[in-house]
UniProtKB/TrEMBL annotation, chain A:
Keywords, comma-separated and alphabetical: Cell membrane, Membrane, Transmembrane, Transmembrane helix, Transport
Protein name per Swiss-Prot or TrEMBL: Branched-chain amino acid ABC transporter permease
Membrane topology, record value: Multi-pass membrane protein
Family affiliation: Belongs to the AzlC family.
Residue intervals passing through the bilayer: 52-76, 125-149, 155-172, 179-197, 203-219
Compartment(s): Cell membrane
Main location: membrane
GO cellular component, one term: plasma membrane
Species of provenance: Auraticoccus cholistanensis
Automatic annotation (TrEMBL), chain B:
The protein's name in its UniProt record: AzlD domain-containing protein
InterPro entries: Brnchd-chn_aa_trnsp_AzlD
TM region(s), chain numbering: 32-55, 67-96
Key word Transmembrane helix present: yes
Keywords: Membrane, Transmembrane, Transmembrane helix
Organism: Auraticoccus cholistanensis
Pfam families hit by this protein: AzlD
Keyword Transmembrane attributed: yes
Superkingdom of the organism of origin: Bacteria
């Protein structure tokens, strides 16, 4: 197994991304979640962007419903990933599909898509998916225990860590003019909406604006 | 509903979203525009989450040490630092700002 380049790449990716589960766990408990709630998100939700969104909304005073809506919208891309992966890996049977679904995340899909050999594709998908699942959950636990022990999260700059985490998730997606334009407009919409809407809703408004911008940008390009 | 209930609803929703993609007939949804639309939505959400966490406090705009964290993270990303270093840079910048008396 370790002879396979895709497996080695997957495990390297798991080591790198698994580590930032520590920051997720610490931020989750300082946002007001319990250790078990943070762990439930990492084990069951298992999609980093949505998990950070959920605790980000809760930390900002948003309702559970707004946090759930933000997490659900951010998770929509996973359905699109799954369609792509289903075409490439074609697992048979419901249980098999359920297992694949649980580890359908940015990293496993990116690694599998980068392979040309079908067997390597499958190995890469599972090495990254399962490897990250294990490390992400272990590091979440470590982080949430640490977060609980730290005391005042602001004195440690943990609210700043959350800001940095979101920017770090956004950054690699800012390739080209259109994503930058969408990001800038959504930032402005959020800042203007914060004083007027209950916490959490400005994010959903920004999501709606992003979709409208997407339609407009695609139309303009096709002309 | 309490927070536990929402945590579980959000988890079930996230898993169901993934599973739907594996159960749908592949040829129906294999459209490039769908992937692009999902990508744009993700950019918009992450941009909004970034700025909300940087300046919002409930329904108020409250600039404070978190802006230092935003700047430090941007510098770290420009220097191609790995994710964990970016997060640590944000924490250190905000903590230093507070040590120096910023709110």
């Amino acid at each position: 197994m370790l002879q396979s380049p895709a497996v080695r790449a997957g495990l390297t990716l798991a080591a790198a991304t698994g580590v930032y589960g520590v920051s997720f766990g610490a931020l989750a408990t300082t946002a007001g979640l319990g250790v078990l709630q943070a762990q439930a998100l990492s084990a069951l939700m298992f999609t980093g962007g949505s998990q950070f969104a959920f605790i980000g909304v809760v930390a900002g005073g948003g309702s559970g419903a707004a946090a759930t809506a933000a997490a659900a919208l951010l998770g929509l891309r996973n359905a699109v990933y799954a369609v792509q992966m289903n075409a490439l890996l074609a697992p048979r049977g419901l249980l098999h599909k359920v297992a694949h679904a649980q580890v359908t995340i940015d990293e496993s899909v990116a690694l599998a898509s980068a392979q040309t050999d079908p067997d390597e594709r499958r190995r890469g998908f599972w090495a990254a998916g399962a490897g990250i699942f294990v490390l992400w959950n272990l590091s979440t636990l470590l982080g949430s225990l640490l977060g609980n022990a730290l005391g005042d999260p602001r004195a440690w700059g943990l609210d700043g860590a959350a800001v940095a985490a979101f920017l770090g998730l956004l950054w690699p997606r800012l390739r080209g003019r259109d994503p930058v334009a969408v990001a800038v407009v959504c930032v402005l919409v959020t800042v203007v909406a914060v004083p007027w809407l209950p916490p959490g809703l400005p994010i959903l408004l920004a999501a709606a604006v992003a979709v409208v911008m997407h339609v407009v940008l695609v139309r303009r390009r096709s002309r | 509903m309490n927070l536990w209930a929402w945590v579980l609803v959000a988890c079930v929703t996230a898993f169901a979203t993934k599973l739907v993609g594996w159960l749908l007939p592949a040829e129906k949804l294999q459209r490039p525009w769908l992937l692009q639309a999902a990508g744009t939505l993700t950019v918009g959400l992450l941009a909004s989450l970034t700025v909300m966490n940087a300046v919002a406090a409930g329904q108020e705009l409250r600039p404070d040490a978190r802006l230092l964290a935003l700047a430090a993270a941007a510098v770290a990303l420009l220097l191609r630092a790995p994710f964990l270093v970016v997060v640590l840079a944000g924490a250190v910048a905000a903590a230093l700002g507070r040590l120096l008396g910023l709110p």
